[in-house]
């Protein structure tokens, strides 16, 4: 299952993704292009969340906050006539890093259930602030007055967003794959398994986890920046706890802790959503039951679908047991 | 700001607080003892509200409406325990979040399928729709009923946990479930009873809230988050903590919404105050939570290590 066989699969997936815009234009179906871009953007967010959730074992139910911060980092400057993409990007990174550091610092004082609740509460805080800012649309949302403009390259069409998201995701996947095996990634995974043991090795668990949390926040923020440009519209509803839940489902669906899994999860999730939507107006009832069944039957079963795609090279013993595991608990053994 | 208005707002805060307590009591026991994260607790609240609305509309009796909510809460709660919770106790938290997140989606859509997206309203019986005169001003008697119910439930749960055999087992189960089951106690049954009791309380909260709020799909989601804030502030697993935190959050939220903008106008420009006031008010309870946690990560009244 390891290594060699997956390379053609990965290459194939990438070629297929690269071919979507061409095919969409050939068929004259702009819907597929926008849908493809949405998948790529959510894949970026899921890969970002996975750094906290998968590598660090931090079950954050509040990452929609950072997605929303990224979106408003485009919409608010654009509202005041600033269309420089560099400024949008700088704002996104700054706001997400700041919010991530602040909320992460407080949240990491706790663990387990309390951590989940606190990240959730922080996201709600952001949600309510934006809902009550009536001069920026409140809960009706705000149209993005001007797309992000990076010199010669502007995110002014779904195609441009698609290309940017594709390049971003590609780089991110390669980078996270390296990150997993870097000394930071190893330290992070050690913290997930046992903070105390990691500390005895000279790692500072909280600092390590906080760094991962901030990193994942910034990546989610950049996904938000792209999403705002794709939709040309932002709304506080992106920051609702429901979106945070969706991101977690994507990560888990694709295989938690692997570098490529979350991206596959985003594709499966959004794809399943579209298929169900086309079949029934009450798709959420079906989808909800599917997610419930997945959690009940056991995540490894669902994750195994994606394992062949995302197979982690040189898995450490403990992780291998989890992935092929029969126990039904993957990932977050953080006590 | 007149004094009577102030007292009325205080009572409103108290009333919101006891409603939160009805939700928080069940949720915190399930949290603290089974360490099970039930995001679908808000759905049980919704089930209670719909059951009360339907039964109330059919019979016109508020007592029947409350009874219907309790029955629905117990039935759905027991079913959920059997199908989901009992299989997930020993899994990790991520599984709890996933499973119950799916259930929230399912219940919200189910409610929309049966009753449609429009909110439904239920009217109060005449005996409860009046007001009570109090210290020179009048206050709706129904809201007094909510406050009284909440306080009664608080006292009953305190008695249950401190004075009864069942309560003793609950407390023991929270600190060492394996030991309790070794002593010959059917811990599965204990957990099921606890979960169902929590569901019944959530449904009761739904029934009590139904006449003053609109009953609609997704109504449990917002209040669930506030309940989670209450539990985190109060200390996970502690019913007494949940009670104090409920009242605190209820009063802070209500007072913030009514007075924060006025207060800000005293110190800041009128336009600034009008813009910042509502924003600040709606995040006040989350700020409160952040401050409490930065100061005491375990919450104000943590349950572990001593009988609560």
TrEMBL record, chain B:
List locations, semicolon-separated.
Answer: Cell membrane
Pfam families, per the entry: BPD_transp_2 (PF02653)
List the GO terms this entry assigns under cellular component, sorted alphabetically.
Answer: plasma membrane
In its UniProt record, which GO terms are filed under biological process? amino acid transport
- In the UniProt record, does the keyword Transmembrane occur? yes
- Entry coiled-coil feature ranges: none
Sorted alphabetically, which InterPro entries does this protein's record hold? ABC_transp_permease, BCAA_transport_permease
Main localization category:
membrane
Q: How does it sit in the membrane?
A: Multi-pass membrane protein
Show the PANTHER family listed in the entry. ABC TRANSPORTER ATP-BINDING PROTEIN, BRANCHED-CHAIN AMINO ACID TRANSPORT SYSTEM PERMEASE PROTEIN LIVH
Protein's recorded name: Branched-chain amino acid ABC transporter permease
The record lists the organism as Variovorax paradoxus
């Amino acid at each position: 299952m390891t290594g060699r066989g997956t390379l053609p699969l990965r290459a194939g997936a990438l070629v297929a993704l690269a071919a979507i815009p061409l095919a969409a234009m050939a068929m004259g179906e702009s819907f597929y292009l926008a849908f493809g871009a949405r998948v790529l953007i959510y894949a970026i967010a899921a890969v970002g969340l996975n750094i906290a959730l998968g590598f660090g074992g931090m079950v954050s139910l509040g990452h929609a906050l950072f997605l929303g911060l990224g979106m408003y980092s485009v919409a608010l400057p654009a509202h005041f006539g600033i269309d420089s993409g560099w400024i949008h990007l700088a704002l996104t990174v700054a706001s997400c890093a700041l919010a991530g550091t602040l909320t992460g610092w407080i949240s990491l004082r706790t663990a387990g259930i309390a951590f989940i609740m606190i990240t959730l509460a922080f996201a709600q805080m952001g949600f309510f602030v934006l809902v009550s800012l009536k001069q920026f649309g409140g809960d009706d949302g705000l149209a993005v007055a001007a797309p992000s403009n990076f010199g010669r390259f502007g995110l002014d069409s779904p195609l441009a967003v698609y290309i940017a998201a594709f390049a971003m995701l590609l780089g991110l996947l390669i980078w996270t794959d390296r990150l997993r095996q870097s000394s930071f990634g190893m330290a992070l995974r050690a913290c997930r398994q046992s903070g105390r043991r990691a500390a005895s090795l000279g790692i500072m668990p909280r600092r390590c986890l906080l760094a991962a949390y901030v990193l994942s926040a910034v990546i989610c923020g950049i996904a938000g920046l792209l999403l705002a440009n794709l939709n040309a519209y932002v709304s506080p509803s992106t920051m609702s706890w429901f979106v945070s839940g969706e991101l977690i489902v994507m990560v888990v669906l694709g295989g938690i802790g692997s570098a490529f899994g979350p991206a596959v999860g985003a594709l499966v999730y959004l794809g399943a959503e579209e298929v169900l939507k086309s079949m029934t107006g009450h798709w959420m009832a079906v989808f909800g039951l599917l997610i419930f069944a997945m959690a009940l039957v056991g995540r490894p079963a669902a994750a195994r679908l994606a394992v062949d795609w995302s197979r982690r090279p040189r898995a450490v013993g403990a992780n291998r047991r989890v992935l092929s595991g029969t126990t039904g608990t993957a990932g977050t053994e953080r006590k | 700001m007149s004094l009577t208005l102030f007292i009325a707002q205080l009572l409103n805060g108290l009333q919101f607080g006891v409603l939160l307590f009805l939700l928080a009591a069940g949720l915190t026991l399930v949290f603290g003892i089974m360490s099970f994260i039930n995001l679908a607790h808000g759905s049980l609240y919704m089930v209670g509200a719909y059951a009360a609305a339907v039964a109330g509309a059919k019979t016109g009796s508020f007592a029947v409406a409350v009874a219907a909510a309790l029955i629905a809460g117990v039935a759905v709660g027991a079913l959920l325990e059997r199908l989901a919770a009992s299989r997930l106790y020993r899994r990790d938290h991520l599984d709890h979040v996933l499973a119950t997140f799916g259930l929230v989606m399912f219940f919200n859509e189910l409610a929309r399928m049966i009753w449609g997206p429009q909110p439904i309203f239920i009217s109060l019986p005449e005996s409860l729709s009046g007001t009570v005169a109090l210290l020179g001003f009048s206050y709706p008697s129904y809201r007094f009923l909510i406050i009284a119910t909440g306080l009664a439930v608080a006292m009953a749960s305190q008695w249950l946990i401190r004075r009864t055999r069942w309560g003793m087992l609950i407390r023991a189960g929270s600190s060492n479930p394996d030991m309790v089951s070794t002593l010959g106690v059917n811990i599965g049954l204990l957990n099921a009873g606890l979960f169902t009791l929590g569901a019944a309380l959530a449904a009761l909260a739904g029934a009590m809230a139904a006449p003053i709020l609109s009953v609609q799909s997704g109504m449990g989601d917002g209040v669930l988050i506030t309940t989670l804030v209450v539990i985190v502030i109060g200390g996970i697993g502690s019913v007494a903590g949940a009670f104090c935190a409920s009242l605190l959050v209820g009063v802070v939220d209500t007072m913030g919404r009514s007075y924060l903008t006025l207060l800000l106008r005293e110190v800041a420009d009128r336009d600034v105050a009008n813009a910042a006031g509502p924003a600040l008010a709606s995040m006040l309870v989350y700020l409160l939570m952040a401050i409490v946690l930065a100061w005491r990560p375990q919450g104000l009244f943590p349950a572990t290590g001593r009988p609560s």
